[in-house]
Amino acid sequence: MHRQNDAAIEVDHLVKRYNKVALAVDDISFRIPRGSVTALLGGNGAGKTTTIAMIMGLILPTSGRVRVLGLPMPEASAQLLHRMNFESPYVDMPMRLTVRQNLSVFGRLYGVVDVPGRIAELAAELDLADLLDRRTGSLSAGQKTRVSLAKALINEPELLLLDEPTASLDPDTADWIRARLAAYRVTRGATLLLASHNMLEVERLCDRVIIMKLGRIADDDTPARILARYQRDTLEEVFLDVARGRGFAAAGEVAP
Amino acid sequence: MSERLVETGLSARRIGAMILRYWYLLTSSWPRLLELIYWPALQLVTWGFLQTYISQNAGFFARAGGTFIGAVILWDILFRGQLGFSISFLEEMWARNLGNLMMSPLKPIEFLLSLMVMSVVRLAIGIIPVTGLAIAFFGFNLYGFGLALAAFFCNLILTSWAVGIVVSGLVLRNGLGAESLAWTLMFLLLPLACVYYPVSVLPGWLQAVAWLLPPTYVFEGMRALMIDHAMRLDLMGQALALNAVLFVGAVAIFLRLLRDARRLGALIQTGE
Description:
The complex is a heterodimer. Chain A is α/β, with parallel strands linked by helices. Helix content of chain A is 35%, strand content 25%. Chain A has helices at residues 48-56, 77-80, 99-109, 115-125, 141-153, 171-188, 199-205, 223-230, 235-243, and strands spanning 7-18, 22-33, 37-41, 63-68, 71-73, 84-87, 159-163, 191-196, 208-213, 216-221. A six-stranded mixed beta sheet of chain A has the order 6-7-8-3-9-10, with helices on both faces. The radius of gyration of chain A is 19 Å and the shape is globular. The N and C termini of chain B lie far apart (41 Å). Chain B contains twelve helices and no strands. The A-B interface holds A 16, 18-19, 24, 49-50, 53, 56-60, 74, 78-79, 81-82, 85-86, 88, 90-98, 101, 104-106, 108-114, 117-118, 121, 135, 151, 155-156, 188 and B 1-8, 11, 13-14, 16-18, 20-21, 24-25, 28-29, 91, 95-97, 99-107, 259, 262-265, 267-268.
């Protein structure tokens, strides 16, 4: 049993430099407690996706360390990858396979013992029953997102990483997805880390926001404290302040 | 909470999952299935009729009946074996599914093993009907090679996997811009491995190059069997030794290229 205050993710002086020139992530450190929901917020090229990819072991850091669920990543990936999962609208599920076939394959890859039973559970939770025998490529964007989410939850991960989970969805579908993610976190005690441009999503889902800019952490706190510090009503206004170089000092506050 | 198997070593279950994934894909599309038979059949018929024509007009080829047809089928085992491996890999790139696989518990070696199995499955779908055509049209029975066929097949499929593994690594590292290697690289071996003519036809320095390639031994072995009725076990042993070196080298190159892909961030940018 892990202690509740154990870190799900520990990032220590992480640096990623591509081709010895482009600095995508510039010496960032943070610690994410188990059971929390944290957002990585930042504009395009801020380093969010690179950071998440290093946490998953898809990209090797130039320097620094990543520990996931207490183990070093990517060294301990064989012990870790079945305990985590990932969802992104930018990584497709095979289009020619039916939803059931795709979930069957991923269920087996993740070591789920009762794959048909787990698919039935997910179909009920994510309203997928009518889609199971349709080809994934024939689904709408919202339906595909639900299927991707089902793939991400197939192994009931302790750590769920999400890259813009509601990108290109209509408000109703996006809200539905957020509700399911919130429910999953509560029922499973899972840790969620999401990269997002959707400020409403971040305010609604997250305990904590890490704002990134040009590969560095520009701010790191709860949404309420960040709003207070920047004297703003919404995170969107904070986002614009950070993106346009208007830090909280410019908004009349002093850093705590 | 549903039960989960935690297998940190090689997992037959994960390899099986990948084979299942490719089987679903193959059976979801009749043009994919048809394509497996189409080219080998076309090759066989073309070369088979050429062989028939020549054998009616030249004494040597009359004695060496079937060498072209045998060469066509064995070449197809080599080429289609590699293509079957590479296409299954490319399907992941085309489907933008590689990211999902690489962040799953699937190990690179398990991925390669599943691609090897699929190359044999795809080959069987294409070649078995073609060997039937060879019997029906030209009276050429590949299975008449007996145990020699097993030796030829093992050596050719090992070479095809080695080439497929290197090509897959290059595509991982460099993106789909390197895709054409999957279709063209094996043709580099066509003149050098002496598929349709003996090694002695080549100039001396090129013969030395030819003998570095495992398939050369197979095609020479086939001609020895068909023309001189001699099973050259020495050639098969030498081919196997070369294949072992080639295969281990290919896996090492693949793992190095995969590491480069992780370093360069290529696994999350699987386009061109």
